[in-house]
Amino acid sequence: MKKLLLSGSSGGIGQAVKAAAAARGWSITEINRADYENPAPLAAVKTDGPFDAVVFASGTCPVRPVAQTSDELLTDTFKTNCGLFLRLMREILTHKAYSAQGMNVVAISSVSAVEGWPGGAAYCASKGALSAMCRAMDSELKSKRISVTALEPRYVKTRMFDQCAGRMGMPAEKALAPSVLADEILRLAAGVIFSSEKITPRDEASGNRQ
Ligand SMILES: NC(=O)c1ccc[n+]([C@@H]2O[C@H](COP(=O)([O-])OP(=O)(O)OC[C@H]3O[C@@H](n4cnc5c(N)ncnc54)[C@H](OP(=O)(O)O)[C@@H]3O)[C@@H](O)[C@H]2O)c1
Fold it and tell me: Best of 18, 60, 63 to mutate for ligand 1, by most ligand atoms within 8 A of CB?
């Protein structure tokens, strides 16, 4: 049985990953907002490891014109979208909470890492940074048999889509079902394909990158 550490299981993508992992018989340790708000070490990382897979699906998507993007908003966005991931990985490594056979880490970045849109300065910057952070971690942690992959989906029909893309007029039918993305995430988390391959969601109808 694989052991999955899942960050952001309360969100739309996180819930779908949780359901898909449970259907595969994986054990799931959940980390959510309340855990991160506590400055103490993330207890479950120490008690429930070692893990075979990690999915980081926590994130925030502010939509703000440049003139209204404060330093504080930028900092908060980076803290959530990159800082929480760094903290999670730091604690996993500190407690050696990774399987000796190897561990696959999938962080949900965004197509916004490489594409811009009006109102997305803080979000796009944070996702570009998250994808870059994953590449650096992947190269550093290979020797520990840890792969780190940034998945860069476009639209996924979740609360975030409704609050951000949907609000900007993106048609809901363009959005991928979270369950479809969850299958892709678990393929990566199970190590079925390797992080050196180009990783993009496969659903053509969604407009996701091929
Ligand atoms: N939906 C899309 O179209 C889309 C496209 C590309 C990438 N993504 C990325 O996919 C990831 C998951 O998004 P989603 O669509 O599932 O959105 P969602 O339904 O809004 O879920 C967001 C998750 O992040 C957590 N979160 C938000 N702010 C947090 C904070 N300050 N501290 C700790 N946890 C926080 C939420 O916790 P609470 O439930 O406590 O708020 C929730 O678990 C995000 O990184 C997002 O950028 C989404």
Answer: 60
Q: Is the pLDDT of residue 194 over 70?
A: no
On whether the CB atoms of residues 157 and 178 are closer than 8 A, the answer is: yes
Counting the structural domains of the chain, the total is 1
Distance 109 CA to ligand 1 centre (A): 10
Give the range of the structural domain holding residue 131, as residue numbers without chain letter.
3-204
Does any domain span residue 209? no
SS3 148: strand
pTM of model > 0.90: yes
**DSSP annotation string for 159-175:** HHHHHTTTTTT--GGGS
Checking if the pLDDT of 205 tops 80, the result is no
The pLDDT value recorded for residue 122 is 98
What confidence score (pLDDT) does residue 113 get? 96
How is the beta sheet containing 27-31 ordered, strand by strand? 27-31, 3-7, 53-56, 103-108, 146-151
What are φ and ψ of residue 17, in 5° steps?
-65, -40
User: Does residue 130 fall inside a structural domain?
Assistant: yes
Residue 99 lies in a domain: yes
Q: Is 12 in the pocket of ligand 1 (CB under 6 A)?
A: yes
Q: What is the CATH number of the domain that holds 136?
A: 3.40.50.720
Q: Convert the pLDDT of each residue in 90-148 to its tens digit.
A: 999 999 999 999 999 999 999 999 999 999 999 999 999 999 999 999 999 999 999 99
| 210 within domain boundaries | no
